[in-house]
Specification:
Elements (H helix, E strand, L loop, with lengths): L2 E2 L2 H19 L4 E7 L3 H17 L2 E7 L5 H12 L6 E4 L9 H7 L11 H8 L8 H12 L8 E5 L6 H10 L3 E5 L6 H7 L2 E4 L17 E4 L3 E3 L2 E3 L4 H4 L5 E2 L6 H20 L1
Parallel strand pairs: 1-11, 2-3, 2-4, 5-6, 5-7, 7-8, 8-11
Antiparallel strand pairs: 9-10
Amino acid sequence: MVTILDGKAVSEKRLELLKEDISESGLYPRLATVIVGGDPASQMYVRMKHRACERVGIGSVGIECPGNATTQKVLETITRLNGDADINGILVQLPLPKQIDTDRIVSAVRIEKDVDGFHPTSLGLLMSGKPGFTPCTPTGIMTILREYKIPVAGALAVVAGRSIDVGRPMAALLTNADATVTVCHSRTKDLPAELKRADIIVSAIGKAHFITADMVKPGAVVIDVGINQLNGKLVGDVDFDAVKEIASAITPVPGGVGPMTIATLMENTFAAATRME
């Protein structure tokens, strides 16, 4: 019988433990979020992060820049937060509007406060096998795998998607955990064949129900990072109902990877406060 990898339950457990750790530490970590423009999805994600902060005892400050803000104006905000000793973590909500140079903004965040793990130095440390802060979504996936005692060392893992926020760091984390990793993307010649070989599939493609049962090896572990709208419903990249009949374990959408992303952000913020103490 398939195991449903309940990211919501794991995140609840992690947040309760984190709340205790913060209380016992005597520290008061603080997270600053920076959002540019009024994209409804981005606004919702930021609100969720602030609610999680309140729950575990992390202070939070939200900074909203107008949608027509320039790169220079956002850089000035980042510089101010970098110099604020009361702020332990800085999160820039992505994506940014087209007129903003995203690379410059991400690179401007002090690495000690880079709780999102997207700074080039943070990513370089991850690739070197000596990570500091690592991106929250792939790190949350590794936590799910550990919580459910799913073996990673020696497993053949296929990551579908090569984005800098999920696919590439996911591959690095799996490699660091001794998996054999293949990264697939839009130019992969035979994606179904690659997927069919995998013991662990991580899909971050962004296409509703793209991965079907015939692409999955019996007994594979399937992690679905996709968030897509289909007929008015929120669904993942994986045809959940069909694939769960074949997989040994699978994450649902919603309730799988998403909650772990926020839980990991909270853990990273506390870690930043601890290191800066």
